[in-house]
Amino acid sequence: MPVTDYDALDALCATCGIAGAYHDIWGIRHQASTETKQSLLGAIGLPVSENADIHRALEREHLRDWERVVAPVLVVAENESPIRVTLTLEPSQTDKAIHWELNEETGEVRRGDWMPGDTSIMAERIVGEIRLKRFEVPLFYLPVTGYHHLIITTANGTQAQTSLIVVPQSCYQPPELDRGCKLWGIALQLYAMRSCRNWGIGDFADLHSAIDILAPLGVNIIGLNPLHALFPHLPERASPYSPTSRDFLNPLYLNIEAIDEYQGSGEVQRLVASKEFQVRLKALRQVELVDYAGVWSAKLEALIILYRCFRQKHIAHNSARAIAFREFQAEGGTDLHEFALFEALQAHFHRQDAAIGCWWLWPELYRNPGSNAVADWAASNTEKVEFHLYLQWNTELQFAEAQMHCSDLGMTVGIYRDLAVGVAKASAQTWAAQPVFALESSIGAPPDDFNLHGQDWKLPPPKPQALIDNAYSPFIKTLRANMRNAGALRIDHVMGLMRLFWVPPKGPPEAGTYLAYPFTDLLGILALESQRNQCLIIGEDLGTVPDDIRSALKSRGVLAYRILYFENNSHQRSFNSPADYPSQAVASVGSHDLPTLSGFWQESDLDMREKLDLFPSAEHRDQLRYTRARDRDEIISALERENLMQVDGMNEEPIGEDLSSKVILPVHRYLARSKAMLMMVQLEDLFCQKTQVNLPGTIDEYPNWRGKLLFKIEDWLDQGRLEYYAQAIERERNPAGTK
User: pLDDT tens for residues 670-725?
Assistant: First the structure.
């Protein structure tokens, strides 16, 4: 029979963290439908088509913690003593002392005993025919921050274990920020960089050159787009926010000529020097949009030769370089192997049939990474798998060199990486960890000004309970991978640590609702990894973010994200002054999802939306144009209040048609004057580019993630006038002339 026990359904949703309603950006309440609730329950492994299903699922959820002696993971603060450990025990397990053994991360072992008494009983429950008792026992020994292992042996010999994670109070911040310094940096879309030498896409050599130019100008941070691995078999899938893995890098950014084997391979040098190949590279450099397929084709051709050379000259002779490669392979472990195996399998099946673009279209025996068929294929195709290990190794080496170069030139932070909110459904990570993901649902966002029906990002969400059952291992691995060789990490949609907006497989995104995550645990682990990696954390907290999330992030030392366009006081109809910006924040004019300053001023983003028929109505379009005109006037008023409309004698000619340096410079000086610890400047703004990086709500209608910068890196200081802007920003950020 159909579901009619709505109270029981709501109780089950509440138990599982599924919100019964949500408020959109305008504060309008949206009630989750019965269909949505059923769909999301099914997505987390609780199919409920009838009332009996609901009651069985409720009982199952209520019994979950009663059926195990101890929870799979316990996250505690470093000042929490004693640690309270909850045990669920049968009578036969409590008539004698319970032994505990704590294996610390350092290798040290601590032991002790508990004698549960009646005073420590928290609750009782009959499960089957056994009366279980829940005790809370104290562990007075608190290990240092880190990952520890607690083993519990009950009176009848039953053994249980839990991961004990001790976390610090706050995330890492560089000492300079603690001293009150105000730093600034440049935000780069690495793929968009032009140069006289690259192969049609910005690469790590271009990044190295950018560091050489920017560090002497007072730049302490270089912010990059996500460098996550994408899809080599489908290179035109260019969004760095929809990767195949967040734990590995995109080899498309490799500087081919800097790979060690290049200098020792006459074959690859002849290929690259050939007239035909040079014509290809010139064409790739000259096109206005990144030709991902063309770039990957050229690089892959060279990489295959380089890998063959590596095997012949190093692997065959077990050279020092081969040993270093094997060490990288060993350190990467199962996760690295499975990623490389996925890449090889996907390439193999795609070559057989171009229609096979997703792992669930592979022959069925290969869809399970643990199957005998997969193991046999890997054993028979070791070089195909190893080729992708070789790509990751060289990519990691070149990226690490970039961060080291930042440090060598005295940058306080250096590389600022960006962590996407999730991975694509057809990704290597969903294949390798299928039980962790709700593959039939996706992450999205509630309705807003530009997406009146909400957004569906087509990224399968992780199941909260699966994260807990795995002691947060997937989350920890992703943090480590993205903090490695980075001075700062921006967490896209940081609200996802507390809740994600789940979109059911059928219906518009607005039909979805929020699902809760273990926020306190995840935030504590974030702080732990931040401290260990000495990595500053920035939380992208735009949109419908509850105040308690922002408060918790602030208390943990996570920097907020403040965009000029959104820093307006709707009641006073004015933009917030520089003094109104919070100090624990990153200030920026815009972001990759927003119009450039020139585009904002000239409404080119609204023109493009109108051209692509993205407005739901003429009234909505007109309202946005009216708001834009008002915002421009209010920005000018804000600049005038700060006496910033004078250019201080810098009378260079404007480089844009309508937006001159009389606006570019004051806007950036305005932000530079803010209290925010960090300020990020987008090169597209300084170069007066109109087109924005990504136009939300579009896929093929607009060339997202393909546009290149206006100037080659060799012309930045001259035509781009970086030194001119840097001097002005540096004076506002650092008026005393000291860092």
Answer: 999 999 999 999 999 999 999 999 998 888 899 999 999 999 999 999 987 899 99
Whichever domain contains 534, its CATH number is 3.20.20.80
Bridge partners of 161, per DSSP, are: 151
Q: Are residues 551 and 481 in the same domain?
A: yes
Task: Kindly tell me the burial class for residue 638, based on how many C-beta atoms sit within 10 Å of its own C-beta (0-12, 13-18, 19 or more).
Answer: buried
Token pair of 93 as six digits: 């397990």
Do residue 20 and residue 84 come from a single domain? Answer: no
Instruction: Report if residue 569 sits inside a domain.
Output: no
H helix runs in 314-381, sequence order:
320-352, 372-380
Domain of 83, CATH number, reads 2.60.40
- Within-domain flag for 613: no
Pair 48, 153 in one domain: no
The partner residues of 223 in beta bridges, in order of sequence, read 187, 416
**Residue 349 in this model has a pLDDT that exceeds 70:** yes
**Band of residue 130 on the pLDDT scale cut at 50, 70, 90:** confident
Per-residue pLDDT of 504-514, as tens digits, reads 988 789 999 99
Q: Is 702:238 a contact under the CB 8 Å cutoff?
A: no
Could you tell me the two tokens for 352? 């057989």
Q: Are residues 44 and 112 in the same domain?
A: no
Let me know: does 521 contact 435? Beta carbons within 8 Å: no
Q: pTM of whole model > 0.90? A: yes
Asked if 40 and 140 sit in the same domain, the reply is: no
The pLDDT tens digits of the residues spanning 254-284 come to 999 999 999 999 999 999 999 999 999 999 9
Please tell me the total number of residues recorded for the chain in this structure: 739
How far apart, in whole angstroms, are the C-alpha atoms of residue 68 and residue 160?
8
Structural domain boundaries, residue 141: 79-167
Stretch among 64-68, 235-239, 487-491 having the lowest mean pLDDT: 64-68
- Maximum alpha-carbon separation in the chain: 87
Residue 410 included in any domain? no
Say how many CA atoms lie within 13 Å of 404 toward its Cβ. Answer: 6
Mean of pLDDT over the chain: 93
Mean pLDDT is lowest, of 92-101, 401-410, 434-443, 672-681, for: 92-101
Asked whether residue 544 is domain-assigned, the answer is yes
pLDDT given for residue 27 in this prediction: 86
- Decide: 683 and 179 in contact? Cβ < 8 Å: no
For 167-233, the DSSP string reads E-SS----HHHHTT--EEEEEE-GGG-B-SSSSSS--HHHHHHHHHHHGGGT--EEEE---EE--TT
- Answer yes or no: do 424 and 520 share one domain: yes
How confident is the model over 65-74, as a mean pLDDT? 94
- The residues, ordered by sequence, that sit 6+ positions from 351 with a Cβ below 8 Å of its Cβ are none
Q: Which of 477, 335, 472 is nearest to 419 (CA)?
A: 477
216-230: b or e for each residue (b if 16 or more CB lie within 10 Å)? ebbbbbbbbbbbbbb
Lookup: tokens for 710: 């206006």
Evaluate if residue 647 carries a pLDDT over 50: no
Cα gap 506→508, rounded to integer Å:
7
Number of domains in the chain: 2
**Cα 207 to Cα 406: distance, rounded to the nearest angstrom:** 10
Number of H helices, E strands in the chain: 23, 26
| Domain end (from 167, 192, 221) | 167
At residue 697's C-alpha, the angle toward residues 694 and 702, to 5°, is 50
**Bond into 72 cis (ω within 30):** no
- H or E element, residue 299: helix 292-313
- Number of Cβ within 10 Å of residue 727's Cβ equals 12
- Asked if 411 and 223 touch (Cβ cutoff 8 Å), the reply is no
Pairing state of beta strands 130-139 and 121-127? Answer: antiparallel
**Rounded CA gap, 296 and 20, in Å?**
46
